[in-house]
Amino acid sequence: MKPAIAVVDVHRSFKVHTEFYVSPSARKTIILVNGSLATTAAFAQTLKYLHPQFNVVLYDQPYAGQSKAHNSNIRPITKEDEAYILLDLIEHFKVDYLQSFSWGGVPALLALGQRPARIEKAVITSFSPLLNEPMLDYLEKGLVSLLAVDRAGLGHLVNNTIGKHLPSLFKRFNHRHISSLDEHEYRQMFAHVNQVVHLESHCQMECLAGVDIPLLFVNGEHDEYTSPQDVRLFAEHLRDCQFATIDNAGHFLDMEHKAAWLQTRDVLLRFLQGPALRETAYRSHAEMPHAIAV
Asked: Tell me, what CATH number does 8's domain have?
């Protein structure tokens, strides 16, 4: 399963590495939006159940992964920049669906607030409109490591907090990736985190008024950082949203164990492939064997 690789020029401002997984049988295309410090590789588990059901678009932000060699990375980019890039890629690849993970929910919701005509449905995973106490504690500790460019310290912090439910193999991959990032990537994340920790909410709720498509929010049962309880605040601001809680899962959902992978797959495919339902709440209680997803 080899993707078509391309570097897309976004209005001569950014050059973005993209991977396009085409399926001859697919009628719809979905784009995946990464969380912070992540690259296209972070969606390896997700790709397994989305393709070949859909054509799948993955991309690296200008400062990350295989995009960073094509950009100057002199200054950090904003979440508005990331939303602008996402909107351009939606048009470029003729995208029908969107799925974001963790901090990728911010540019995803900003982009959806612009009502891109092509997008029919969107899935927002491991995201919350609130910065609760555990998340603020994690971010404040992260600022210290980011400012000091403490690679090992940041890797341990991520694995001991939002990544604490990951299998040991994935924790090793996570630590190796985080501890090998370039300094500009730490500056990028510091600028973003420093901004959001001084706000009551990192999600600009006013942009949600423009969202007019069905949304599904998926969170892990044991994710204290973006909790299933906190995410339900979105129901007060969106006209058509559903919620799913993945049993016995933390922040990283389909990476954590096989049962979580299966349940996340079933929840997403049911939402994306089924008719648009006017529901405000949904929870799956799949009974599946526990195994490590590797």
From this structure: 3.40.50.1820
